[in-house]
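Colleagues,

For the teaching module next term, I've prepared a clean inverse folding example: a structure given as C-alpha cells, and then the sequence designed for it. I'd like students to try predicting residues themselves before seeing the answer, so please don't circulate the second half yet.
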C-alpha cells in the first residue's frame, strides 16, 4: 500500500478486526508470532470457536421436528446452507451440500457424473489447480473409465495459459475443472470470460471450479461466472475444517453420488454421506456471519443492503480492494531485495497487484524451502509454509519439485505485518 494513497477503511479498522482473532499474534504455546500462512488455513474468528463449543455441548446429533434439540439442529443445517448460498450468490440453500473436505466433495462429484459424461468425452484440468481438482478427474474418469484427460499449462509468470486451455477444448469436451485462484502462485483466473470462451467451443461442457483458495480474498458469484459446480472450504474463511459444494439445481437432480439406501435421494441430502458434523457447521455459519459483520463495519452505520448476498459482496469487495494494497506493498518490497539472492514466483509487477491474491511463492538462493522457513521462524517468529502446498503440478512447473516457500496474507494483516516480513526477509537475503 503506497504511502501516497489514502488509507482504506479496513486499514483504519484493522485493530477491531484483529481483536476478533484470538490467535493472531501468538502460537499454540503462547509465543509471539507473525502468522503468514493463511493459504494453509486462515485464523479462526472468535465466534466460530464459540459456536463450535456451543453446538457440541447442546445440540442434538440428528435433525428432527419434535424435540427442541433436534428442531434446533434442523434449523442450524438450513441456516448454514442459506448463508453459504448467499455467500456464493446461489439460487437457494438446496444447491448446497456439506463435505469433510474439498477433495472428498470433488471425488464424490466426479463419481456422481457417471450418468452424465459420455464414453467418448474428454476432460480438461489445469496445472494451476491444487490436486483436489485434478486427481478426482484423472482417477475416476482417466484411470477408471479411460477418458482422455487433458492438462492446460501454466505460463512462465505462474498464471493460467488460457490460450493453451482453449486449444484443448473441442466439441467432445464434457467437463472443465479449473481454479479461481492459484493455491501456489496466488494468480487469479478470469472465470466468466474463460468459461464463456470454453462454451463457444463446447456448448455442453460442464465447469467445476475450485474456489478454496479464492474464498477469503474476493467476491465469488456462481451466477455471474456461469459455472456448474463450485467448492470452497470453511478453514479458509475463518472457520472450521468443513467444505461446501454448490451445484446448479437442475444438474444436481441428475447426478448419482455415493449414497446409502436410507439417505434421501434428493439434493442436497443425497450428496452427504453419514451424519453431518454439527460442530463444524455451527462454526462455518459463524465464520460466514463474521463477513456480514465486516460488511457493516466497513460500510458504516448508515449503509443499507438490499439483501444478504449484497452484504457478502460488499464485504468481499472491500477485502479484495484492501488486500490489493497489501499485495502492492509486498511486491514493491520484493523489488528492493537482492535479485541474485531472492526470486518471487508469479506476477511480481506491483501495478498488476489486482490480478492476484496476497499469496507469494518465493526462493532464497542457497537455502531449501524448509531451511528458509526455519530461519524466518527462529529469527523473528514469522510463520510461513514450505512444501508443495497441495499444488504438485505448480511446483513441478516452477522447477521446484522438492517444494517452495509460501507467505500468505489476509485482510486481518496490515502494512506493519508486511513490513515486518520484508524486514526479516531482507536480513535473510543479505547473508
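(Answer key — instructors only)
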Amino acid at each position: 500500500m503506497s504511502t501516497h494513497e489514502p488509507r482504506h477503511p479496513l486499514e483504519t479498522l484493522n485493530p477491531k478486526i484483529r481483536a476478533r482473532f484470538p490467535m493472531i499474534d501468538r502460537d499454540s504455546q503462547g509465543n509471539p508470532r507473525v502468522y503468514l500462512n493463511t493459504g494453509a488455513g486462515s485464523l479462526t474468528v472468535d465466534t466460530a470457536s464459540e459456536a463450535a463449543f456451543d453446538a457440541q455441548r447442546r445440540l442434538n446429533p440428528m435433525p428432527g421436528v419434535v424435540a427442541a434439540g433436534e428442531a434446533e439442529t434442523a434449523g442450524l443445517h438450513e441456516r448454514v446452507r442459506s448463508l453459504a448460498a448467499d455467500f456464493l450468490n446461489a439460487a437457494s440453500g438446496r444447491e448446497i451440500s456439506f463435505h469433510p473436505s474439498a477433495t472428498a466433495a470433488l471425488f464424490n462429484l466426479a463419481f456422481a457424473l457417471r450418468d452424465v459424461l459420455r464414453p467418448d468425452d474428454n476432460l480438461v484440468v489445469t496445472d494451476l489447480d491444487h490436486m483436489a481438482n485434478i486427481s478426482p478427474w484423472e482417477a475416476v474418469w482417466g484411470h477408471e473409465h479411460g477418458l482422455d484427460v487433458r492438462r492446460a499449462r501454466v505460463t512462465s509468470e505462474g498464471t493460467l495459459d488460457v490460450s493453451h486451455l482453449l486449444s484443448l477444448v473441442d466439441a467432445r469436451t464434457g467437463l472443465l475443472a479449473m481454479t479461481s485462484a492459484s493455491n501456489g502462485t496466488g494468480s487469479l483466473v478470469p472465470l466468466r470470460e474463460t468459461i464463456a470462451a470454453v462454451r463457444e467451443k463446447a456448448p455442453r461442457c460442464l465447469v467445476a471450479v475450485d474456489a478454496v483458495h479464492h474464498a477469503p480474498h474476493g467476491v465469488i458469484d456462481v451466477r455471474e461466472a456461469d459455472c456448474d459446480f463450485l467448492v470452497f472450504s470453511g478453514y479458509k474463511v475463518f472457520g472450521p475444517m468443513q467444505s461446501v459444494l454448490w451445484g446448479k439445481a437442475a444438474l444436481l437432480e441428475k447426478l448419482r453420488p455415493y449414497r446409502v439406501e436410507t439417505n434421501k435421494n434428493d439434493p442436497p441430502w443425497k450428496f452427504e454421506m453419514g451424519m453431518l458434523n454439527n460442530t463444524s457447521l455451527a462454526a462455518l455459519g459463524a465464520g460466514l456471519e463474521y463477513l456480514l459483520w465486516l460488511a457493516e463495519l466497513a460500510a458504516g452505520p448508515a449503509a443499507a443492503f438490499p439483501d444478504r448476498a449484497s452484504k457478502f459482496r460488499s464485504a468481499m469487495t472491500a477485502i479484495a480492494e484492501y488486500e490489493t494494497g497489501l499485495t502492492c506493498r509486498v511486491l514493491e518490497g520484493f523489488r528492493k531485495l537482492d535479485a541474485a539472492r531472492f526470486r518471487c514466483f508469479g506476477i511480481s509487477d506491483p501495478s498488476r497487484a489486482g490480478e492476484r491474491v496476497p499469496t507469494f511463492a518465493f526462493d532464497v538462493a542457497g537455502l531449501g524451502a524448509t531451511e528458509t522457513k526455519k530461519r524466518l521462524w527462529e529469527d523473528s517468529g514469522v510463520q510461513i509454509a514450505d512444501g508443495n502446498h497441495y499444488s504438485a503440478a505448480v511446483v513441478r512447473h516452477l522447477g521446484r519439485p522438492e517444494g517452495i516457500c509460501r507467505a500468505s496474507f489476509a485482510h486481518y494483516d496490515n502494512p506493519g505485518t508486511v513490513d515486518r516480513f520484508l524486514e526479516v526477509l531482507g536480513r535473510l537475503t543479505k547473508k
